[in-house]
Amino acid sequence: MKLKNLLENEKNRIIKVPKAQRFSYILTYYWLWIAGAAGAVILAVYLLWHAFFTLKENWFYALLVNVTQSDAAVEALKDDFTAYAGYDTSEKNVIVNANSYFDASKSGGTNNNYFQAFAALVESGDLDVVVTNEENLVKVGEAGRLLDLSAEPYAELFSEYESLFIYCTPYDEAYSKEPVPVGIDLSGSDLSEVYGLYTDGAALGIGAYTGRPEEAVRFLHFLNVRPRGGE
């Protein structure tokens, strides 16, 4: 009853204000209520949209670190790989993210939001592959954020690229006391030859907690990565 009386009193007060001044009066005395109601509506629409209409899962997620080339080359890479793999993007996302800049091989090179975002992607299992230069990749691998390509059950899956393996010795000896393969050399692949990305050389690592390692192999095939000594 108190709320009903309050609303009735406010209604009567507004009625007494001249029509020409009502809009200004309402904005002056009720802007906070209006803003709150509008915010609630926007939040509800946002939550409903994301609950029912946005894509939540990924076919594939690649992070390209320290890319300096045009966005057009990255988009072409994404579009061509999507077509090659036959992914239906109405069902799941295909993400090729080239907005990441960090260098773990340099002192303080991980003290930025880009590296924190990368680490979160790894931990969540969303990240399938990361591409960067070899020195950067090795340092990331030393921290245990990349898949050991020789470990079961992945050894057979990546065995065709053994001649291109890039090794590191993990900081955590419980992980391994010996060098382990955490990357694949992409030199001479279509990444640079066709798309003009990483023309000074690049390496690819697999996110430590990915649930889609076979998609990483599909990406390597798409890039026409040739093992040394192969055809």
Gyration radius over CA: 26 Å
Query: Averaging pLDDT over every residue, what do you get?
Result: 84
Supply the helix-strand structural class: alpha/beta
**Widest beta sheet: strand line-up:** 2-1-3-6-5-4
In the predicted model, the low-confidence regions spanning at least 5 consecutive residues are: 45-54
In this structure, how is the largest beta sheet organized?
Answer: 6 strands, mixed
Order of helices and strands: HHEHEHEHHEEHEH
Number of strands: 6
Separation of termini?
Answer: 84 Å
Task: List its salient traits.
231 residues, alpha/beta, six-stranded mixed beta sheet, 8 helices, 45% helix, elongated
Question: What would your notes on this structure say?
Answer:
This protein is of the alpha/beta class and 231 residues long. The chain is built from eight helices and six strands. The protein has helices at 2-16, 19-52, 71-85, 113-124, 134-142, 155-158, 190-193, 213-222; strands at 58-65, 93-100, 129-132, 165-168, 180-185, 203-206. The protein has a six-stranded mixed beta sheet, sandwiched between helices.
